Amino acid sequence: xxxxxxxxVLFWPYNEYYKGRIEGYEANQRGMSGAxxxxxGLLCSMFFLVxxxxxxxxxxxxxxxxxxxxxxxxxxxxxxxxxxTPFDSKLIEEKSALVTPSLLGEEQVGSWEIxxxxxxxxxxxxxxxxxxxxxxEASGVSTNATVxxxxxxxxxxxxxxxxxxxLASTGVLQVPIEVNSGxxxxxxxxxxxxxxxxxxxxxxxxxxxxIFLWGSEQxxxxxxxxxxxxxxxxxxxxxxGSLIFFPVTLSSGFSDEMWTRSSGGLTVQGTExxxxxxxTVFEGGAEVTFVWExxxxxxxxxxxxxxxxxxxxxxxxxxxxxxxxxxxxxGDDSWYPEEEPSRKGLSKLEVxxxxxxxxxxxxxxxxxxxxxPMSQWTRWGLDNIGNSGLGSxxxxxxxxxxxxxxxxxxxxxxxxxxxxxxALQSHLRGSKSDLSSFLSxxxxxxxxxxxxxxPVEFGPLEVSIDFGKTRAFSSEQISITxxxxxxIASKDRQTLIEDFVKPGGYDFWEVVGINLEIRTGMLSGxxxxxxDSEIIEYEHRRxxxxxxxxxxxxxxxxxxxxxxxxxxxxxxxxxxxxxxxxSVFAICLAVGIGIGITRKRVRAPxxxxxxxxxxxxFSIYWFGLPMQIVLGLVSSSVLLVFPVAxxxxxxxxxxxxxxxxxxxxxxxxxxxxKNPVESNVRPLRLDCIGCGSTxxxx
Length: 698
Hints:
By secondary structure, this protein is an alpha+beta fold. The protein has six domains: about 1-60; about 70-225, Galactose-binding domain-like (Jelly Rolls), CATH 2.60.120; about 235-330, Sandwich (Immunoglobulin-like), CATH 2.60.40.10; about 345-570, no CATH class; about 585-645, no CATH class; about 665-695, no CATH class. The chain has eleven helices and 39 strands. Helix 5 crosses helix 6, helix 8 runs antiparallel to helix 9 and helix 9 runs antiparallel to helix 10 (about 625-645).
């Protein structure tokens, strides 16, 4: 036996050593009393204890932890109704309380609480209340701070601070609280109350005060305590062919939040598993199951190490050794849900839409991506096609007609097989009403709002499904791509997308992400874009040969209301190319008219007006404003050139030049050059502009 061999190596040196000592001792001490003969027995007993102690150390595995550990309970929420949480991921909104000078009485700053959903014991020790502060309009403040902590039916208060504390500028106020050992029951509360007494400011004025801050990553006020937070237990692996499942139980009063609100993972043989694990909620905690795919002929001993960090500075780790023989089916499979798993949780939904507008029709490719509990529900349902134990309201009963296409070895094997994937794709392609049913009753998405039209109006339909990094039962992201086209009625507003999560699905989706791009050809335009929500920020651009409308990475709450529409006018004058040609022609026409009617007037005002109107026209054209505005503005530039030209001042220098051009001329007899005569005085002498000869006029 391997273990026996290991421990025998440890045993042998001690055995030989003590054996030699005992024999020497017995040879030299024969004839002594019987009491002296007990020494060899004592030495043998010592040898046995020394030999057995390595056995206990090596055999012990660190498969679970951690009963009590020091951590922070962060303060969030309003001062009069605040909450405590162990997760720094909830530090998203900063709150504050202002305390002004007070010589008498007690000033309540705030109170925070948390309901503990598990039972446990906590040790005696010193807890610490920490809260950032900022002194305003004063050089400092002296005060007595009091913190009252209630744990279930027990109360602990900080000792009186006399003469008190002095707080200057900015910093963190720390108040220690001595706590006796005790226990907490499920449903008990941990409450913290913070107050000040005798608040006196140095060099104050009427606006002096001290501000206490909490609730953000920068100002993370907290109660530091040693308390039972979570107990982690690593179970034996479950082997299903080439898939190895590692279940880890997180026993706490925070359900699946202990995993979803924390950072963590599992490393196997020093390599981090990148696939999202399965999260199963049970009373008293959650079970997180990781999946590792190995070759069918893999065999050997592997080390797995689990790590969890609910907050910065708190790392919980445990590890376990496993003997694995792949290609077989064995181990505890209690992690695999016998019933349809819940879809509720913190799933993330992302919708990517790629459209091409052709004037009278729209070609649309919509990709729906989701993870978390919704991904687990989808994978479990495909792995249970034809399961007679499905509930009467389960959507997966719609797939029972495909049960004959799934072999017994593929059913409930912990992964999505090709036959199961093909069954779902065929079901969604075969009937547009089945597609609507899956989206509406399965994913809790309203199809009309997602696609802008009822899927019944779709032309030929194509559906593809991608399970990402793994097809194993997990919460890894799934992508469903739906491609089709549909007709658009002329001169109607067409909905591109609106709030599409059904009211019953708000508990299923934590956040909704939207990416959208719609393109047109050079002879079809969008006309205008209309949004009734400031939440949706879009970018609309015209490029002469095409028009592009885009929404880039918008994240919304599941219950946010929004709508985005386009004006589907098929008129050619609203297309990017024709409208650009009309605009250029109109600007050129305005320039020609301006030049023509300002021959006797100053041209600068009319040319400046045309330049400004032209620049404005091309700016709003490029920024995608409604085409009616673009064409209206370019038409105005043609019309406005008339009044602007009429009110322009007369050009006197031009008038003088024209007058000079009408004056008499005299021909030089020497060179034949004609010289203008600009004076009526006679006789008149002037120099020839050709040869320089002096000419005399009588």
